[in-house]
Amino acid sequence: MFRRLPEAQIEVTLFFENQVVAAAVGDSVASALLAAGITIFGINQVSSRPRTPRCLIGNCFECLVEIEGEGRRQACLIPVRNGMRVRKITADEEIVP
Amino acid sequence: MSVDIDLAVVGSGPAGLAAATQAAELGLDTVLFDEQATPGGQIYRNIEQVTAQRPQTLKLLSTDYYDGLVLIDAFRNSGVSYQAQTAVWEVVAERGDDGMISLGTVTGGTAEMYHAHAVIIATGAMERPVPLPGWTLPGVMGAGAVQTLLKGSAIIPDVSSVLIGSGPLLYLVAWQLLRAGAPPHALWLTTPRLQWRHALPALPGMLHAGDELWKGLRWLRELRAAGVSIRSGAEDLNIEGDDQVEAVSARFGGRRKRIKTRLALLHFGIIPNTQLTMASACKHVWDSVQRCWRPYHDDWGVTNVPGIFVAGDGAGIGGARAAKLCGQLATLEAARQLAHIDTRTRDALASPIQISLRRELGTRPFLNRLFPPPALNVSDELTVCPCEGVSAGELRKVIRLGCPGPNQAKAFIRCGMGPCQGRMCGLTVSESFARERGIPVETVGHYHLRPPVKPLTVGELAGLAGMPTPIVDSGGLPTKGHK
């Protein structure tokens, strides 16, 4: 769906589930995943529809993922770091209390 | 930890940057908080990196982008304390015995409380959420989101997109994609054909901004020349697909058009992001032209809550240049209230700013007439609240059953109860009540928003020193804590 302009400097590696994702310094977790072709960030457990980021500026909350073991983080607001581990949120964690 | 300061500024877009810089010049002890890693807000996102290291992206952006560099340089040199990657999750309006306002912040897992004599909330704008069939499918994004990818990460679409909606940003993004080598297939405008005729009476306000008009017309000409299909008067929009966008369709007059695409970019103008002001008990008024809420405020950005000011697009859409000027005015009045300057000094400093601001805001009537918000479409099957999967039909049902208002609808059907806290459905829900009841939106009101307005873990909250400690009685139940 997306590609990078040649000027992007790929210097960071993170992990989404078991997939290795190459990212650029300054990427948010969400932009790194989108650039790697990952558009589905989770499944909405109420409606069962796939969740995909829509706004990328912290408002839609469709990009929630688990980052470094911490659940329900906004991927669009968190800069990538080398070796970062990102996971989809599991089904029971998705349910809003 | 708890910190006492003169002025807290929330948001580092043009309004926040200008407000904070002005505050430093007046000698106010100021902290600026912003969620992003770098200053600039959405409009000047990542401008320092782009101008220093990314000539390809820089070429794609409009020259207005440079204005941000001047603002950010002044801010960086001002000595204001800058708290990046910091979310403000509450601004507590009830002043304590010390007469200060408290702000709850969180940075990388650490929550803190700040106490400020004055707070300027400059949280900017967001794209207007408009429910459409298929608007939550993967492959649907805000046009603004694509610009975020470009500015932030040099990422562009590698599929042929269709841009749908209205407003200046839609044209800009289409033109930027063209120049980036990712020309959109089509630009479908929901503004009626010949809408410009309605805008003509307001044209005089654009006189000093003629270059903006020409710029817009040039973008359109270049898009057409490149073969991008541009149509206005799109109605009855439909985004098709099961787990991913496959096509978009719309009716133009009597004929329906359909285009296969995997990327639909929506944009229906921008509205003030009022999440923090609403949670801070600021009074909000309904803007019946732009059909959105904005915090009530006077010409200095003074809200109904003593000590809380608003500035920039978050106070009412005026654009980046107006935002900067409003930020400066809010600081001048805050400094006067804190007795750092007297009224005469405030007025002398404000006078040239007010003249520029009047000229800037003179363009709004024309733009508002040219780009009216789309008509409210809430056919039964539409998803109104994506977080909780609430349809317009379910909402209408509870309204007709006598559900009193948006806050009771939360309890009935959970709309607005999900992670986004009503950011995506709030407008639609309030407008739906107004339409069904035949009463003004202002009478319906909006969701009560409560802190924290940004996610906060229990661990982060518990880490706050100085928080009341729960006292657990012998039955194991927490009783009321005290300091």
What this model shows, in words?
The complex is a heterodimer of chains A (97) and B (483). Chain A is mainly beta and 97 residues long. Chain A has helices at residues 29-35, 91-94, and strands at 2-4, 10-16, 19-24, 42-43, 50-51, 64-67, 70-74, 85-87. In chain A, the strands form two sheets. In chain A, strands 3-2-8-6-7 form a five-stranded mixed beta sheet, with helices on one face. Chain B has three domains: 2-126 and 271-366, 3-Layer(bba) Sandwich (FAD/NAD(P)-binding domain), CATH 3.50.50.60; 129-268, FAD/NAD(P)-binding domain, CATH 3.50.50.60; 383-444, Arc Repressor Mutant, subunit A (Orthogonal Bundle), CATH 1.10.10. Chain B contains 17 helices and 24 strands. The longest helix of chain B is centred in the last third of the chain and has 19 residues, at 343-361. Mean pLDDT of chain B is 92; it is low at 469-483. The chains are: A mainly beta (97), B alpha/beta (483). At the A-B interface, strand 1, helix 1 and strand 7 of A face helix 3, strand 8, helix 5 and strand 9 of B.
